[in-house]
Amino acid sequence: MSNKTHESDVAFIRALAELLTENDLTELAVKREYGQDDTLNVRVSRRGETVTTQVNSAPPAPAAAAPAPAAPAAAEAAAPVEDPASHPGAVTSPMVGTVYMQAEPGAPSFVSVGQQVEEGDTLLIIEAMKTMNHIPAPRAGTVRRILIEDGAAVEYGAPLMIIE
């Protein structure tokens, strides 16, 4: 991309930030392509209230590839020693939405810590776009940890609970 700026990019980034807030998301990443060598990569994150953008106007050069290895190193340094998502018994979210631990307010929770579950038992519900999606247990076992709270927003791939 030349030195000219796309005025629509500013409005686009503001719209992404509003979408992030309205849906209580923690991060949103989008790649916008204008042409063969003209792209805009935007990542909006609420973790530190940061907004980052990257504009590529030419094919990636070896110097541009150098920062990529630094990102995993930084992630490893900031990551906790025990990542629930890497646990072999982790049940992860298949979608973005809002978690409900019971069928309706005041009803008992579908599962609790220490409870035995069978494959296919409903663990929780994720509401996405006004649709209630029952999330089944992927395997039989005992619920060891519940990693989310009722009414919390979850992202795709976020760990929900540990079943061993």
UniProtKB/TrEMBL annotation:
Q: Which UniProt keywords apply?
A: Biotin, Fatty acid biosynthesis, Fatty acid metabolism, Ligase, Lipid biosynthesis, Lipid metabolism
Annotated Lipoyl-binding domain ranges read: 88-164
Record's compositionally biased regions (Low complexity):
63-80
Task: Please name the pathway.
Answer: Lipid metabolism; fatty acid biosynthesis
Q: Does the keyword Lipid biosynthesis apply?
A: yes
**Region annotation Disordered: residue ranges?**
50-87
- Tell me the SUPFAM superfamilies matching this sequence: Single hybrid motif
**A single GO molecular function, which one?**
acetyl-CoA carboxylase activity
Against CDD domains, the record matches this protein to:
biotinyl_domain
Origin superkingdom? Bacteria
Q: What is this protein called?
A: Biotin carboxyl carrier protein of acetyl-CoA carboxylase
Which species is the source of this protein? Roseovarius ramblicola
Q: Which gene encodes it?
A: accB
